[in-house]
Amino acid sequence: MNSYAALLRGIGPSNPQMTNDKLRAVFTGLGFTDVGSVVASGNIVFRCADTDVPALEDRIQEALNAELGIPGGTIVRSREELRALLDSDPFPGLTHSRGTYLIATFFKALEAPAEIPDFDDPLARVVGVDRAARAVLAVVDNSVGKTPDFMAWLEKQYGKDITTRTWLTVQRVVKKMG
User: Fold this and answer.
1) Burial of 55 by CB count in 10 Å (0-12 exposed, 13-18 middle, 19+ buried)?
2) Could you say which residues of the chain have pLDDT below 50?
3) Known Pfam families for this protein (predicted)?
4) What pLDDT is recorded for position 51?
């Protein structure tokens, strides 16, 4: 059995159709095992025999839309991909805080861009692209009144088949995967 994490886009925990118990029920209904949720923002871990990740993403998204009316995006990563991303230590010496808000933006595409154009805001900077995990890694300064709209900028550059997680959430997801 393969261990995966589904990173769901557009989940609003206050929406009664998007609660963790309902999300887990969809995954269990698909025949997946060891289904669990991490944080109330659309991070579901599970096990299954499937190895065709794009087909798995489509299958999950179709079920979420049919059963809960969630049209958003489903991005799946294996435990190995996420573990390798964590082990690469892309934020050396940095600790997640308001001044150094560490984020990873995952691409649904089979490849992440080789490099990201400069984001013209001193409060956010791209620190790298992890091609294997298909993720862009960035640091955002949320300690001042005006927060840079880095995620909207990424969406404008690359479309809606992306989703962003804090580095702490990525760590929690991998821990939950065992």
Assistant:
1) exposed
2) none
3) DUF1697
4) 94
- Name the residue among 2, 9, 4 with its Cα closest to residue 163: 9
Q: How far is it, in rounded angstroms, from Cα 35 to Cα 4?
A: 10
**Amino acid 135: pLDDT:** 95
Q: What is the pTM of this model?
A: 0.94
Burial of residue 120 (number of CB atoms within 10 Å: 0-12, 13-18, 19+):
exposed
Say what the pLDDT of residue 72 is.
Answer: 80
Torsion of CA 12, 14, 17, 22, to 10 degrees: 90
